[in-house]
Amino acid sequence: TFMRGVMRSGAHVSSICISDGPMVNELRSMGIEVYVVFSDCNRVNNYSSKLSRFVCGGFRALTLSIRVRQRLQICKPNVLHVVDNSLAVSAMLATLQTRVMPVWEMSNVIGSGYIFDLNRKVYHLAFIISSAVIFANSQASAKSLSFASSRIHVLYLAIDFDRFSPSNVSPISRESIGF
Questions:
Q1: Are 109 and 141 in contact (CB under 8 A)?
Q2: How many of the other CB atoms lie within 10 Å of CB of 163?
Q3: How buried is 45 (Cβ within 10 angstroms: 0-12 exposed, 13-18 middle, 19+ buried)?
Q4: Residue 21: φ, ψ to 5°
Q5: pLDDT, tens digit (0-9, with 9 covering 90-100), for 148-164
Q6: Which among 3, 92, 95, 160 has the fewest CB atoms less than 10 Å away?
Q7: What is the pLDDT of residues 95-129, one digit of tens each?
């Protein structure tokens, strides 16, 4: 619905997706140009320790930021919109020394379970050196990145009134809305 709203305003919308899948198909069905970064995206979930996941995830984030940056140089968008917290650092790094503003739709709290709070320090560094704007979905999410309080805006989850209109109270099956 975010992209539909932007499209309704008359703006050209294209998307960079990390891997092929249902989201890519949905965006293309809406007439949105989609660039897929990895044809086979393997997340780092099979490593035993948090430290090894952190290190391997760091290499993946750097590779991703390089590929996204290459695409940004071709497309020259105004904004790089990121929803997945695990992709925020890559997006912020990809936009360095470009005129692209990273907009991070922060979907949940950034945990503190890593040794020396490394994960929050990485977010902090990426945030400091970028021009990112963050929209957190709650005060709790926003507070987990307390270092960035002046550039974090809380945008609570909402309802799409075109699909769920209070004046149109007809039964909707869970299947018809994707549940």
A1: yes
A2: 11
A3: exposed
A4: 165, -165
A5: 667 788 888 776 767 66
A6: 160
A7: 998 888 888 888 888 888 778 888 888 888 888 88
